[in-house]
Amino acid sequence: MIDLPDLETLDAEQLRQAVRQLAQQVQFKQALIDKLTHENALLKRLKFAAQSERYTPKQRSLLEDEIEADLAAVALEIEQLAPRQREGKKQPKRLPLPANLPRREIRHEPDSITCRCGCRMLRIGEDVAEKLDYEPGVFSVERHIRGKWACAQCETITQAPVAPHIIDKGIPTTGLLAQVLVAKYADHLPLYRQEAVFARAGLAIPRSTLAQWVGTCGVRLQPLVDALRAELLTHRVLHADETPVAMLKPGNGKTHRAYLWAYAPGAFENMKAVVYDFCESRSGEHARQFLGDWTGSLVCDDFSGYKALMTTGVTEAGCLAHARRKFFDLHAAGKSQIAETALAQFGKVYDIEREIKDATADERKAIRQQRTRPIIDALHQWMTLQRQKVPGNSATAKALDYSLRRWQALTRFVDDGQLPVDNNWIENQIRPIAIGRNNWLFAGSLRAGQRAAAVMSLVQSARMNGHDPYQYLKDVLTRLPTHKASRVGELLPHRWRPEQSA
């Protein structure tokens, strides 16, 4: 939103400039609405035409889940951009929740029953709204009862307000929404399996409804992920890695290889977090778009997609574990003496790193200069001599070349106490994604992959800070509707505290 000064204080030229700014803003918002409306139409066509014989029943159910979630997310984004378009639209009538479910009443009454005119108000009725709650294995119903109080003197009616909800006028509590999100993105349970789990608990919630909840929550939680990314980029040292994920290609029912990129502050930074970025390919352009103008030390592997970053002010820090792994594989395959010697020297470096992991950056640098530098220099000299003795196309030559070609990046940690020795920190954070792939057939769309990346960023970051992802998401979803946008950083996983929960 463009901030404009008081129009009455502007001269003619300034008014024309203000009008041009407003016109540009309107044009941008309209283009975005048109784009989302077009995407919405495509999703609806996919939803109602998902009867191709190319899909097995299980594949269709997974795809339809993602389409429902995408439809809900797009509809919410359109509503946020153009809320007036919903005026006068009839809301669908919702079936009552089953009478056999246990209920607990939450009463909302005015702080005072004295009217502003001084008269004592009389209770004339109440409004009741029911929300569906869930604790593992047990459904219950929250009955929100809002008493109606009337003043006979001034003929006014007073009711206590109900706090805004993450899904306006929806039936799920934030506890149920958190359960669905954690089951889908942390426990890797597709919605059709959750539907069966809920049915055993006493209420079969249609997977289309679950998908709509997921889509809406994805949009609501996005500001937290944006704030997490912004704060991550304030750190001087970052880790980066990527892993393939199958994504459905629109139109032909086939999948292609997409990638989930992962970024985290350095292992010695004072922030524990990870941000996932779902992209259609492994192109280095995605890393450039994510990092933007960031300049610092990037700990990464030898993937060519990161190389272009090094021309924009980013410093490459190599992964010693990748170099060691080449010799480990060589030794495992043929008991190579060269590999055994290299592994012994790498082992000495890692022994030192284990001793100094809790030291300060300055202390770490000093010890590395004193103890690690001689080992590294001797190892480089030995590798150079060995490379002259082995054939150029041998496995040993390839292992040696990997280290020698990247020696400056691999040993940069010796001169910088804030740099970790390898990229294992981010590889550990990307491992849950690799585990989850065993339960995924594919990501149903680019939007679905991006939504999964956003929620998993919060879930995994909560885990890294020792939080229960369910309790974290439940509390955040409860507070978000009334939380100031300028203070959204307070809800980030590395700052959130359980005692803050209402």
Care to describe what's here?
The chain is of the alpha/beta class and 502 residues long. It has helices at residues 12-48, 57-81, 174-185, 191-201, 207-232, 284-291, 320-334, 337-355, 361-387, 395-405, 407-410, 424-436, 446-464, 469-479; strands spanning 103-108, 122-135, 138-151, 156-158, 237-248, 255-265, 275-279, 297-299, 315-317. Among the domains are: 21-83; 229-317, no CATH class; 320-415, no CATH class. It has 14 helices and 9 strands. The protein has a 5-stranded mixed β-sheet with strand order 7-6-5-8-9, sandwiched between helices. Strands 1, 2, 3 and 4 form a 4-stranded mixed β-sheet that branches. 32% of the residues are buried. Mean pLDDT is 83; it is low at 50-63.
Fraction in helix: 40-55%
> Can you give the mean pLDDT?
83
The helix count comes to 14
The count of DSSP E runs of length 2 or more, i.e. the number of strands, is 9
* Class by SSE composition: alpha/beta
Q: In one word, what is the shape? A: elongated
Main beta sheet, described?
Answer: 5 strands, mixed
What is the terminal-to-terminal distance?
A: 32 Å
The Cα radius of gyration reads 28 Å
Which blocks of ≥5 consecutive residues have pLDDT under 50? 50-63
How much of the residues is beta strand, in percent? 5-15%
Biggest sheet, spatial arrangement of strands: 7-6-5-8-9
Order of helices and strands: HHEEEEHHHEEEHEEHHHHHHHH
InterPro entries: IS66_C, Transposase-related, Transposase_IS66_central, Transposase_TnpC_homeodom, Znf_dom_IS66
Protein name: IS66 family transposase
Pfam families: DDE_Tnp_IS66, DDE_Tnp_IS66_C, LZ_Tnp_IS66, zf-IS66
Keywords: Coiled coil
